[in-house]
Amino acid sequence: MKNPGFNFQSTYTELPNIFFSKVKPSIVEKPNLIIFNQELSDELKLNFLGINSQDKASFFSGNLVLPNMKTFSQAYSGHQFGHFTNLGDGRAIMLGEHIISNDKRVDIQLKGAGLTPYSRQGDGKAALGPMLREYIVSEAMHYLKIPTTRSLSVVKTGEKVYREFPMEGAMLTRVASSHIRVGTFQFALITQNLKNLENLINYTINRHYPYIKNSKQKYFDLLKILVKKQVELIAHWMRVGFIHGVMNTDNMTLSGETIDYGPCAFLDDYKGSKVFSSIDFQGRYSFENQPLMAKWNLARLAETFLPLMQDDIDKNKKKAEKIIQSFSELFNKKWLNMMRNKLGLLKEKKEDQKLILDLLKLMESNSDDYTNTFNDLSDFNNLNKTQYQSFNFKDWIARWKKRRDEENLSIEKSFLLMKKNNPYIIPRNHNIEMIIDEANKDNFTPLYEMHKILKNPYERTEKAEKFTLQPRENEKVLKTFCGT
Ligand code: AMP
Ligand code: MG
After folding, report:
1. Does the predicted model carry a pTM greater than 0.70?
2. Distance from C-alpha of 251 to C-alpha of 248, rounded to nearest angstrom
3. Strands 77-80 and 150-162
4. Distance, CA 83 to ligand 1 centroid (Å)?
5. What is the pLDDT of residues 459-480, one digit of tens each?
6. 190 within ligand 1 shell (Cβ under 6 A)
7. C-alpha distance across the termini of the chain, in Å
8. CA 287/CA 290 separation, integer angstroms
9. From the CB of 251, is ligand 1 less than 6 Å away?
10. Helical (H) or strand (E) element with 78
């Protein structure tokens, strides 16, 4: 196969050997390309024209390795549901860093590519359902304008993978601005070699934040940047009703992108304490706990920086703590402004917090749909629906209208602001399940249809309308499972 334009480097493998293992993807039986992201391929300046589908499938299943590819897997650790473990890419293999332009480098990684030294008890493989879920949700997040890894393709391997029952095997090609995780730093820390930590931190700064490279305070600067990135990311998640499901430290990137779509889900009816993950028994990663968990993860990251700050340990520790503590205030401010925007408000008024919390309380007690309620509010005609006729809701609407009148903003502009911040379409869990069920029966039409619709999540089109429907009682997804 001719090279479709990949310009690979593997600067990550210039880190000390302990950070990675050279691994080749396993050969799979009968690769078959299910979905390919043409738009992303164009953005990556790749050109697959003239490459037949068999070669394409061979490439995206790791059967065909180009001459300049030095494939490897990454080592990392992580706190999983609060417990520290050594992990690593147990089922992912990096094809390399593709250089798009002078200042743009992305990791191209195969997920489900076979055994690696980090596979532990696993088989290194992935099933079709979870790979399609990651493809759909990561692409949806991108078009919702939320920092995220992306998906270039899904290939069916033609092999069975054995979970609770035999399933179709698959592989996803993930594109990420890097795969450096909080867990990568935790891994460096437990090697008990300061050089490893120093190498990793410098590599991260060079790759993502070169503008702080020469700062005398670069560790603190990095921490501040990461706090800000996570504040923004989690506020975005809460804007669209996204629940990540497994915010373990190995699933938080230093780039600020959402990563590792496992048992993730979107809220239908609003419930702050909502959990979908089948293994999250204590609600650790519930919808409303996400900011707290991001802060907790950042504290684990800060701990790994401390050994590098040897002079005046106490003073540095206090300084790092202060940066981590700033998360709460920054987040509250960000969240309030984000929710204001969802309600067409720009000014910062003290009473807004109560107005917002009262709406959430109402939605929760009425089991109102998070996405649809905000959409309804941006068109007064919708407020005739019976859902909004209760005394409490009418009262709230009157308060909100009064508050809105205090803006120096026309009603049209307010509605426009709302439409920009409230998606019309989210990948609803029952739709994703239906797509996966059909894909398992070799019908990919619903997958392609949804992929297309999700590209314009803020547009109210007739075609998109059916994706705004809440699940019927028998369609409700109550639990989601880790994506292996
Ligand atoms: P995740 O839930 O995808 O964040 O994965 C958590 C850890 O389990 C990571 O170290 C993965 O590489 C590993 N893992 C997940 N699935 C498999 C599998 N099928 N085989 C080997 N390792 C796996
Ligand atoms: Mg992970």
Report:
1. yes
2. 5
3. unpaired
4. 15
5. 999 999 999 999 998 888 887 7
6. no
7. 30
8. 6
9. yes
10. strand 77-80
